């Protein structure tokens, strides 16, 4: 997927998160990595696309790092990212 399309998709997802009152960030790094993060009181979820491919990872306090999941397509990674956002949002009372 080209970088401009990826930027549009990540920006659209970020807008949807903001509509739901979820703190989020979209980052574009010099090495070509694009990252979307959703932040909750206890959890943070990251969707990254880099030279390795799309991946999703989650952190929960205190200092628990969940295994990074790698995907074949951005679409698959987005589905997992959104699923984790919904789970964390409900668990933490944000949704």
What percent of residues adopt helix (DSSP H or I)? 25-40%
**Termini separation:** 31 Å
Overall number of strands:
6
- Number of separate domains: 1
SSE arrangement, N to C: HEEEEEEH
Please compute the radius of gyration using only Cα atoms.
Answer: 13 Å
Sketch the major β-sheet: 6 strands, antiparallel
Which structural class matches the secondary elements?
alpha+beta
Number of discrete helical segments:
2
- Outline type: globular
Average pLDDT confidence is 90
| DSSP strand content | 25-35%
Low-confidence stretches: none
Summarize the structure.
This protein is an alpha+beta fold and 95 residues long. It has helices at 3-19, 74-91, and strands spanning 23-28, 34-39, 43-50, 53-60, 64-65, 69-70.
What descriptors fit this protein?
95 residues; alpha+beta; six-stranded antiparallel β-sheet; 2 helices
Topology:
Blueprint: H1 3-19, E1 23-28, E2 34-39, E3 43-50, E4 53-60, E5 64-65, E6 69-70, H2 74-91
Structure commentary:
The chain is α+β, with helices and mostly antiparallel strands and 95 residues long. The chain has one domain. The protein is built from 2 helices and 6 strands. Strands 1, 2, 3, 4, 5 and 6 form a 6-stranded antiparallel β-sheet that branches. Strand 4 and strand 5 form a beta hairpin. The radius of gyration is 13 Å and the shape is globular. The N and C termini lie far apart (31 Å). The model has no long low-confidence stretch (mean pLDDT 90).
